[in-house]
Amino acid sequence: MGNAIYEVVIDGHCQVRAWALKLQKAELGKLNAKLDLLAQHGAELPPGLLAGTDDRHIDKIRIKGQRALRVFLCRGPINIDGSEFTLLHTCVEKDSKIPPNTVETAADRRAAIIHGNLKRVKHERYKR
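and the corresponding C-alpha cells:
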C-alpha cells in the first residue's frame, strides 16, 4: 500500500486505535476496509470514501451500520501532497448530528501536529 496513514497520539495513547478496538467485529471490518482503500488510493480516492466537514482541512470517513460511526482525518498535515493522512478523532453520529466540537477537536489536533505539540505514529491495521 503506497500511502501513509498516521494516528495522533494523545497522553501516550492512540485514541483512534483504542476506540476502534472497542467496535463490534462487523464495524471494525468496515473501518479496516475503508482505511485499506485510503492506503491504496490516497489522492485518487474512490468517490464517496471521504466526506467533507465545515473545516476545509478536515474530512470524515463514514462507517454505516447499526451505528453511524465517523473517523475524522486530514491530508498530511506534514506532507500534504495526498500521500499522507492522519486520523485525528472519532465519534458516533446520532440523528444525523455529530457531537458538539467534534470537528473543532480534530482541527485543533491537526494544528497541534503542525506546531510540533502532538506526536503521531504510523497506523497499523486494527486486529483483536
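(Above: one complete record from the training split.) Strands lie at 4-10, 13-14, 50-52, 59-63, 68-75, 84-93, 119-122.
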